[in-house]
């Protein structure tokens, strides 16, 4: 059969063709748990010189790790599980990736094609438990491959959808007998099957440029779409050019360095008062949202003050998010980086032709920095024992590497992380707030660190693994998915986990007090104290306990210097409430807005 260039192709196994596509897409690691009905694929990955198989302890961990790999590299990641439970165990992790627009190829096994519909063990075909159907609502494409010849065609379609427009996961289900069958494809260059062009509307860009130049109090709200698109530098250029103040959504925390003079910090969930007062106030005359979906966690339950009296310019790659909650004046549909490049070009040209940005922000007092920026500054400098959650984070801040990638899991610790950390230039903050699954922050850093280690190994530094991935998680997140720390130890993946131990589901305990007239739910405090550091040591990780002020700096630098997985347990005063804000009202079903 001829290939795209017209030459004739020798027959190869479907498996070889499939793996060649993964290599061409730069997806060098496959995360998963091998099993009979996907065995040929796993074996093929293990034997392939350019691929690496990472066997996790649970398929959910595999999906989370693939997500962490893709979120930090902006490249496709791969996870796989065998038929039946191996496949269903992937679902939560895949849903996380779908909610946050993370590109991922998900592969599941199937009984041999001749046995489909006859009740084979672990059969999950459309005639039975429909695994393809289960993945449909949480992927951009979910298909059962019906013949070996069609495998590559399905794969190309899956890759095109995963990596075009708003990225996301895709799923293929493959009968076990297909892998060894002949296939005659050599159509491997990604440029031949998925577009790399980025579209934008020039008229809309010109309209936005004009409104932004004219604004007296231009303000940007940056969301995770800007991070997905790699537009952080472009955001900074635009903000400086316009002298616009900048808030981020919780998920995009750090998209503009939070110590930048124009940074307002985080708007919404556990955010900062400067951002809240500015964006909900009456000063701002033009608000430009960049890849922010304007969901509950950023908008204080869709507070109308965010929109009142302002010109609203909304940029999103997904047309369905434009004008979903607030009417827009200018809609910009497309990739954030592409549109910001064009917008900056327009603004530069207008300035060259005599226009000058109308920003009057410089007439206002400069934004507050230091401890005063946070809601409870006294708790950041407190010497109290047990430690306050604020104090050890202020200590941590002093010792964070300049290029740290900080993950957070879901819980009260996440609210403290969003509020109390200052993410600086060169650092990244990663959180799965779209789906909000516990365990993501525990496992995803392993994928990120593997990707980072690979990048270093391929560089002139010659493979020295310096740890830059740090994950701050809760004790209950640790007990839910913490077995993957064994995976990290086995593969020597350099991540430092900091487990904030308050001996309970802190967010639920404090939230329950708020919604039930001061009476907390007691069943979520542990019956026996949890010894996190001891459990970590049993899993093969060096571990430290931090329980005093000023101790974190030294312990973190020791943990980072190991170049291997390590854990720090921080014992804190659990009675201090995380910044719950409007979330508690949502839980209680209230519709009120906090201003
Ligand atoms: C998979 C999953 N199950 C349940 C929840 C609901 N939930 C959110 S946070 C939380 C408790 C987190 O406890 P911990 O990790 O100790 O963090 P803390 O709030 O104490 O800081 C629960 C049960 C969730 N988000 N994800
Ligand atoms: Mg806890």
Structure description:
With 595 residues, the protein is α/β, with parallel strands linked by helices. The protein is 36% helix and 16% strand. Strand 12, helix 12 (296-299) and strand 13 form a beta-alpha-beta unit. Helix 10 (232-242) packs parallel to helix 13 (336-352), helix 15 crosses helix 16 (412-420) and helix 15 packs across helix 22. The site of magnesium ion (MG) has 8 residues, from helix 18.
Instruction: Order the strands across the largest sheet as they lie in space.
Output: 3-2-4-5-7-6
Mean pLDDT: 92
Strand residues, percent: 15-25%
Tell the overall outline. globular
Ligands in the model, by name, code or SMILES, are: thiamine diphosphate, magnesium ion
Total E-strand runs: 20
Rg (CA only): 25 Å
Head-to-tail CA distance between termini: 66 Å
Low-pLDDT sequence parts: 457-463, 589-595
**Structure class:** alpha/beta
Main pleated sheet: 6 strands, parallel
Q: What would a concise description of this structure say?
A:
The protein has 595 residues and is of the alpha/beta class. Helices cover 36% and strands 16% of the residues. The chain is globular, with a radius of gyration of 25 Å.
Note the topology.
Layout lengths: L11 E2 H11 L4 E5 L5 H9 L4 E4 L3 H15 L3 E5 L3 H4 L2 H10 L3 E7 L20 H5 L5 E4 L6 H13 L5 E7 L6 E2 L18 H13 L3 E5 L1 H5 L3 H11 L2 E4 L14 E4 L6 H8 L5 E5 L5 H4 L11 E6 L13 E4 L2 H17 L24 H5 L7 H11 L5 E4 L3 H9 L7 E3 L9 H18 L11 E6 H7 L2 H7 L4 E7 L4 H10 L16 H7 L4 E4 L5 H10 L4 E6 L10 H6 L8
Parallel strand pairs: 2-3, 2-4, 4-5, 5-7, 6-7, 9-10, 9-12, 10-11, 12-13, 13-14, 15-16, 15-17, 17-18, 18-20, 19-20
Antiparallel strand pairs: 1-8
Helix pairs in contact: 3-5, 3-17, 8-13, 10-13, 15-16, 15-22
The structure holds thiamine diphosphate and magnesium ion (MG).
């Amino acid at each position: 059969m001829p290939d795209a260039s017209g030459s004739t192709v020798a027959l190869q196994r479907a498996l070889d063709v499939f793996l060649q596509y993964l290599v061409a897409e730069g997806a060098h690691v496959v995360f998963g748990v091998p099993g009979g009905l996907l065995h040929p694929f796993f074996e093929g990955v293990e034997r392939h010189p350019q691929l690496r198989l990472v066997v996790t302890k649970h398929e959910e961990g595999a999906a989370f790790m693939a997500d962490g790999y893709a979120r930090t590299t902006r490249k496709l990641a791969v996870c796989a599980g065998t038929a039946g439970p191996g496949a269903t165990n992937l679902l939560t992790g895949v849903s996380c990736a779908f909610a946050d627009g993370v590109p991922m190829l998900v592969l599941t096994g199937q009984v041999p094609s001749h046995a489909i519909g006859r009740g084979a063990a672990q059969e999950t075909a459309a005639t039975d438990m429909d695994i393809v159907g289960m993945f449909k609502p949480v992927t951009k494409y979910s298909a059962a491959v019906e013949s070996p010849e069609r495998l590559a065609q399905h794969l190309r379609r899956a890759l095109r959808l995963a990596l075009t427009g708003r990225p996301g996961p895709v799923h293929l289900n493959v009968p076990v007998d297909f892998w060894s069958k002949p296939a005659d494809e050599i159509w491997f260059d990604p440029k031949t099957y998925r577009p790399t062009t980025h579209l934008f509307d020039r008229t809309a860009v010109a309209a936005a440029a004009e409104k932004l130049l004219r604004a007296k109090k231009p303000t940007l709200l940056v969301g995770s779409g800007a991070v997905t698109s790699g537009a952080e530098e472009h955001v900074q250029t635009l903000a400086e050019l316009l002298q616009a103040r900048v808030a981020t959504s919780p998920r995009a925390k750090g998209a503009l360095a939070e110590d930048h003079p124009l940074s307002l910090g985080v708007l919404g969930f556990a955010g900062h008062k400067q951002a809240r007062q500015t964006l909900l106030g009456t000063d701002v005359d033009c608000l430009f949202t960049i890849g922010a979906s304007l969901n509950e966690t950023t908008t204080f339950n869709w507070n109308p003050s965010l929109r009142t009296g302002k010109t609203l310019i909304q940029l999103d790659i997904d047309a369905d998010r434009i004008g979903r909650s607030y009417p827009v004046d200018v809609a910009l549909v497309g990739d954030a980086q592409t549109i910001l490049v064009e917008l900056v070009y327009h603004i530069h040209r207008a300035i060259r032709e005599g226009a000058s940005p109308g920003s009057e922000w410089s007439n206002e007092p400069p934004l507050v920095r230091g401890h005063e920026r946070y809601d409870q500054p006294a708790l950041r400098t407190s010497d109290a024992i047990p430690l306050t959650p604020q104090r050890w984070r202020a200590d941590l801040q002093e010792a964070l590497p300049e290029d740290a990638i900080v993950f957070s899991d879901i819980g009260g610790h996440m609210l403290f992380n969003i509020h109390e950390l200052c993410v600086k230039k060169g650092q990244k903050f990663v959180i799965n707030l779209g789906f909000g699954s516990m365990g993501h922050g525990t496992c995803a850093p392993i994928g990120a660190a593997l990707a980072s280690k690979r990048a270093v190994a391929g560089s002139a530094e010659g493979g020295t693994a310096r740890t830059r991935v740090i994950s701050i998680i809760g004790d209950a997140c640790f007990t839910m998915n913490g077995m993957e720390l064994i995976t990290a130890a086995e593969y020597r993946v350099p991540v430092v986990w900091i487990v904030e131990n308050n001996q309970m589901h802190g967010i639920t305990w404090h939230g329950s007090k708020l919604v039930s007239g001061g009476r907390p739910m007691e069943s979520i405090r542990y019956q026996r104290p949890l010894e996190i550091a001891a459990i970590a040591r049993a899993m093969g990780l060096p571990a430290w306990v931090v329980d005093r002020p000023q101790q974190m700096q030294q312990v973190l630098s020791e943990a980072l210097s190991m170049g291997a997985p390590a854990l720090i347990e921080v014992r804190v005063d659990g009675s201090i409430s995380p910044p719950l804000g409007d979330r508690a009202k949502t839980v209680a079903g209230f519709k009120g807005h906090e201003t």
